[in-house]
Write a structure and sequence with these properties.
Number of strands: 4
Structural class: alpha+beta
Shape: elongated
Oligomer: single chain
Number of helices: 4
Order of helices and strands: HHEEHEEH
Strand content: 15-25%
Helix content: 40-55%
Length: about 130
């Protein structure tokens, strides 16, 4: 019986640690991305788009630019880290942070900075599987 309780405690600690780690990483990444991208709002939309295209992927965030009619003008490239791998939905639901997208107004457009915890969750899943093995 002690072995079962010990195993359950280890599982809980791993999931809770992963949840905290994912939240901290995503919150920090979003803050940094927004701070960097607020520079973009100072210029015209075409210059802002060119800067975003040169910048590419900003860690753990998805960037999208929409015009005043809501037409998507730009989306950042997907992450290349552990491409094609995802944690099971039940695990992702346990550890995913609930962080809203942030919007930066641009002249004639808006930039959405949306947290993307998927790669950090895959790392957490890998650690969980290793613990269970």
């Amino acid at each position: 019986m002690l072995l079962i309780w010990t195993g359950a405690l280890l599982v809980w600690r791993e999931v809770d640690g992963t949840r905290r780690s994912v939240h901290e990483e995503i919150a920090a990444s979003s803050r940094v991305a927004v701070q960097i991208l607020q520079v973009v709002e100072e210029g015209p939309a075409d210059r802002s788009l060119a800067l975003l295209q040169r910048m590419g992927r900003v860690r753990a965030t998805e960037l999208s630019v929409y015009d005043t009619q809501g037409v998507r003008l730009y989306t950042s490239p997907p992450s290349r880290y552990k491409v094609g791998r995802d944690a099971p939905a039940w695990f992702a639901a346990l550890v995913s942070p609930s962080l809203a997208a942030q919007v930066i107004a641009l002249p004639g457009a808006r930039l959405e900075v949306r947290p993307d915890p998927s790669r950090a969750i895959v790392d957490g899943w890998d650690d969980f599987v290793n613990l269970m093995a």
